[in-house]
Amino acid sequence: MARYEDELAQIVADLNRSVSGSKDAPVNLAGLDTLLSLAVRSGASDVLLIAGAPVTFRILGKLSRDGGPLLTAEETRHLLLPLLTAAQCQELQQNKSVDICFTRDEIGRCRANVHYQRGTLAGSIRLLPEKIPSLESLHLPMSLARFTEARQGLALITGSTGCGKSSTLAALVDLINTKRQDHVVTIEDPVEYVHVNRSSIIEQIEVGRDTPGFAVSLRSVLRQNPDVILVGEMRDPETIATALTAAETGHLVFSTLHTNDTSQAVSRILDSFPAANQPQIRQQLSLALLAVVAQLVPTVNGGGRYPAVEILTASSGVRHLIRRGDDHQIYSAVSTGRGDGMNTMEQSLADLVRSGRISSETAFAHCFRPDDLKRYLQG
Predict the structure, then answer these.
(1) Where would I find the H helices in 180-259?
(2) Angle at 122 between CA 116 and CA 128, to 5 degrees
(3) What does the alpha-carbon distance between residue 265 and residue 263 come to, in Å, rounded to a whole number?
């Protein structure tokens, strides 16, 4: 890890001088730009700005703990508030949190969440690669590429915050953009990776700027003759229902959910609806589902980010389980479905251990079913 604490201390000292003289000190982004430039040179993926803590970088998945000057509440405000438009400031005041994207020359695009903690402003900034990632660069299974060849259906990417769902979706859309002559529409909050038209035509709609919300935009998109639709997140029943309808009626739909494994994704969709509506949603989901990919990123040996990936494909057996309401048997179908391109998170973690990417201790720390992982490692 590069040693950067002296430079970081100087940046914070300069920032302190710029805000200590007056509360009405000129607002500018020079301090933040200098900070982000240092983050890029240090190989950081994220920057955390929290009052009472030093500026913290995440490098190779780990938080840097090299110390340094503690940020004051005024310094975090000075760094973060200039990023926000008037509308975003209003959203921050109403919701106490706002998601944004911004671009800086020689730094590139960044995604940020600005929020309150202990009554003070704080921020988490993700540095987005300038180049759209590929499945290879993300160390994802190349078998995921087959989902971009489908003409209709719903493919979900699931996992916790920060596991790389947006990067995976960007890689899949880029494959479509390279190989297919399609009309692709993405609905994102916010837009992270900017796609340039190649074989396909890509429209990118940003919630808050181009549309008031996912559901209203998705209804509108269906009248715009798309072939492929990306919905950044299925947050509410209306969005889920419309996405299922789109996937049933000749569109390839990609979206995300916050679930730890693939079977939970099925339950999460169904639980979003009242019990009276669930039989209909089961029927739709059994017909529309193409695949669910759950991913997490354990700490690997020697650096790098190698995700563990669970893959559920909608085989005839899986469709039957969903339709019949036997969701508890889906995991078993995944664990025995390697012939259909499926594998569990524990199988993926075991593969990473055998390849030397992670230790067995790391695998057990991240797995959900330790007995299964133990069996795969012994097999």
Answers:
(1) 214-221, 237-248
(2) 125
(3) 5
Distance (Å, rounded) from C-alpha 305 to C-alpha 355? 14
Tell me which fold the domain 5-127 belongs to.
Beta-Lactamase (3.30.450)
pLDDT band per the 50, 70, 90 thresholds, residue 135: very high
Nearest to 114 by CA among 138, 94, 96, 141: 96
Instruction: Evaluate the omega torsion of the peptide bond into residue 298 and state whether it is cis, within 30 degrees of 0.
Output: no
The whole-number pLDDT of residue 337 equals 95
Sheet with 120-127: strands ordered across: 62-63, 56-59, 44-50, 120-127, 108-117, 97-104
Please tell me the distance from the alpha carbon of residue 55 to that of residue 50, in angstroms, as a whole number.
7
- The lowest-confidence range among 6-10, 44-48, 288-292 is 6-10
* Residue 349 backbone phi and psi in degrees, to 5: -65, -40
Question: What is the CATH architecture assignment of 142-378?
Answer: 3-Layer(aba) Sandwich (3.40)
Mean pLDDT of 113-123: 96
What is the Cα–Cα distance from 248 to 107, expressed in whole angstroms? 41
* pLDDT level of residue 67 (50, 70, 90 thresholds): low
Residue 345: phi and psi, rounded to 5, are -60, -40
User: CA-CA distance, 333 to 340, in Å (whole number)?
Assistant: 10
163 residue type, one letter: C
| CA-based torsion, 178, 180, 182, 188: positive or negative | negative
Q: What is the pLDDT of residues 305-358, one digit of tens each?
A: 899 999 999 999 999 999 999 999 999 999 999 999 999 999 999 999 999 999
Task: Tell me which residue of 219, 330, 215, 226 sits closest to 270, measured CA to CA.
Answer: 330
Q: Domain limits of the chain?
A: 5-127, 142-378
Q: What is the pLDDT of residues 179-225, one digit of tens each?
A: 999 999 999 988 989 999 999 999 999 998 899 999 999 999 999 99
Radius of gyration of the chain (CA): 22
Average pLDDT, the chain: 91
